[in-house]
Amino acid sequence: MNTFPFSYTFQDVELLRCAYTGENNRALSILEEKVIEGSVSLQLLSKDIDMSPKDLNRVIVDLSSNVVSSCVADGGRLGLQKIIRVSRKTDSSAPAVVCGAFRAVFGAIAIDKSSLDSAVKVFLTIHGKGMEKAMAM
């Protein structure tokens, strides 16, 4: 087991390593993006099954842009730039690198727990209230 700098303990430490070393980092990052989109869609449609596809997509796009703009700050707060492993030619504190690793951690949590909901819950403890407010629409 390995504890990350927030309230989650990985059962499979290899998944955490993959999130910050670049091995499967991109795939885990994509998984996280889809996890958040799916969670938002489920919550919004559970509240309003008649929501138009256009409105649903607009909320998802708005939330996605919010996540992109803040994942570098969130990743920096967690100190990911200090543990990310990249080639010598790559700056581990570059925004795209930090954001990718930040997202990949939550993809790794989803796999570690075999639960998309678990990844979303941990994500919301870090990323927070902005998404919760938007999903409460």
Summarize the structure.
With 137 residues, the protein is mainly α. Helix content is 72%, strand content 3%. The protein is built from 7 helices and 2 strands; from the N terminus they run ββααααααα.
Give an overview in words:
The chain has 137 residues and is mainly α. The chain has one domain. It contains 7 helices and 2 strands. The protein has helices spanning 13-21, 25-47, 53-77, 80-83, 95-113, 116-127, 129-135; strands at residues 2-3, 9-10. A two-stranded antiparallel sheet has the order 1-2. A hairpin with a 5-residue loop joins β1 (2-3) and β2. The longest helix has 25 residues, at 53-77. It is globular and about 50 Å long. The mean pLDDT is 81.
Range of strand content: under 5%
Strand order in space, largest sheet? 1-2
List the domain count as a whole number.
1
Average per-residue pLDDT, rounded, comes to 81
Helix and strand run: EEHHHHHHH
Chain-wise SSE layout:
Elements: E1 2-3, E2 9-10, H1 13-21, H2 25-47, H3 53-77, H4 80-83, H5 95-113, H6 116-127, H7 129-135
Antiparallel strand pairs: 1-2
Helix pairs in contact: 1-2, 1-5, 2-3, 2-5, 2-6, 3-5, 5-6
